[in-house]
């Protein structure tokens, strides 16, 4: 039997495996005890990896060595006709360049993306079921000049779909239009019975001073005369109620109280720091919508047809911020510029002047 003190803390697996040799509380371990101890360690160091694996359709393929990549497939395939080439056709590795050289090159050869580029983007196809290879033009379109695609880019299919879904949810979180103007009031859900919440008196005073602002973001409350540190919530944002229902369906604990406290605390701090300036969508609600958009977006290893790729790019071109995902990471990256002459079919004209000069003179 192995006895481990409950107040021990370990930084990694190597520490605990080394400590079993030096600790006086643990005697020589047999094989089964060693396995049990190692299992306890893994449970102790287990962390939530949901945010790191949420963009993958099949989590078992992450960091696996099963040889499912395109390079592994070609390396294992025995071509009966042609032998393996000595080197790849295009080598984009720049191992000899230092970091300062790369930074200097990027600063001198900057590429600015615009939403107009997405409207005329040409889809080449899906790459490794993760990215979409596209051709775009790095120059602006003019009336008298035909735009030629000269830039090869990669589009992250998960980040792109995540951005499309986020902006859709942001438009749906607010109420209906009033007199043709977009409403800035967050949809709310009433709570029966009211939810009791304990806060600091200073925060409650700020909430009372900006009661109309908190009502705008979906929080309606009343004070408690018997306890100045307590308020009764009569309504909260509808997106929190929806998130609560989804978490309970998945067998998770209730999160409504935690999210409401974060929303109130952050918004009170924002109002104090900005002297009551209005923010259309609080960051706490933005995080809820970003998580929702991320969980339902297209994952890595999802196969897309060319028509689906074009449909995704069309929807992305209508977004306000198409070049970053819901969490702020880039959704598109440039690879390299292509020679425009490769896409232009020009007819070679004979050089008649040189033919006349080279013709022998008649006597």
UniProtKB/TrEMBL annotation:
GO terms for molecular function: ATP binding; ATP hydrolysis activity; ATP-dependent DNA damage sensor activity. Residues 123-304 form the MutL C-terminal dimerisation domain. GO terms for cellular component: mismatch repair complex. Coiled coil: none annotated. GO terms for biological process: mismatch repair. InterPro entries: MutL/Mlh/Pms-like, MutL_C, MutL_C_dimsub, MutL_C_regsub, MutL_C_sf. PANTHER family: DNA MISMATCH REPAIR PROTEIN MLH, PMS, MUTL, DNA MISMATCH REPAIR PROTEIN MLH3. This is MutL C-terminal dimerisation domain-containing protein. It comes from Lottia gigantea.
